[in-house]
């Protein structure tokens, strides 16, 4: 009897325990916290990053204008030279001899002109009294005129010989940095040879030649015509150096080519940059950031809030109705710093999720708050936390 009562009590206790377990439910997990930025319209510069090359402000190749043996080199390779500075000396012995010969010929011509002029004057007096024939006087006058012409020719020969002798001293045509010398003392050089003796480049200021596609130029002009983009206030250009750092001095756009390159479909733009420290070297590859215009009503979205789906389309998560995550397909134009210019899919007032996107699914109820890592304006952060 007691055994039966004990068994019944155990069964009742088990039933009560099972009933209690079935009635209690585990608490629901809290909604995931996300960092949001409230989007708004603002004015933004329209930047375009273009490839470019550094070119010297002035470049001059030092070349011989006569032939001969180099006797001396009078500059330090890689140093600074002034315009007119003596750089090379060519052996001038043959040219000194040629000058002396030309001067002798000029002296002989001057002596000849004296005798022929006197004879022509005498014949002029005698032909008046028929002491000589008219033909004799004409011959004497022609001889005197020919002697004067010969003097002029010999004087030109002397000047040419002096010029050639001066060419034996090769001087710098411009001021600037001179490169390595391709010829050493003792080398034979010729006028019109293929290789220059050295090259001088002026680099206290430099040019940067950048190329921009014709399509980009047309897009910019059409955007300006529609009124969405205004012309930039001055053509300012910034440089990104090959090591990724920014050049500290801004440049100015000088001009744009008037024709499109038929092989590349691009237009060349030229900008000038001060180069006081010589950091920019001719031939260096750089990237130039050109301020093309100003977008008056741009929506700038942090890049952390824009991703790509499997088809490569830009997408974004926003906080929608009832604090649920909502997936949007968006259109972006270009990056400005760490933000995208959004042209479609988002509007001012949308709360863009920029943090907490990992494993976040559309339709999930979220708890929006101010972002912790993403830089945002004070107004955007406060709006996102509401």
TrEMBL record:
Keywords: Signal. It comes from the Bacteria. SUPFAM superfamilies: HlyD-like secretion proteins. Residues 99-168 form the Multidrug resistance protein MdtA-like alpha-helical hairpin domain. It holds the Pfam family BSH_RND. Residues 297-357 form the Multidrug resistance protein MdtA-like C-terminal permuted SH3 domain. Residues 1-19 form the signal peptide. PROSITE patterns: PROKAR_LIPOPROTEIN. Residues 206-293 form the Multidrug resistance protein MdtA-like beta-barrel domain. It is found in: Cell envelope. The keyword Zinc does not apply. Its main location: other. Residues 58-201 form the Multidrug resistance protein MdtA-like barrel-sandwich hybrid domain. Belongs to the membrane fusion protein (MFP) (TC 8.A.1) family. This is Efflux RND transporter periplasmic adaptor subunit. It comes from Sphingobium rhizovicinum.
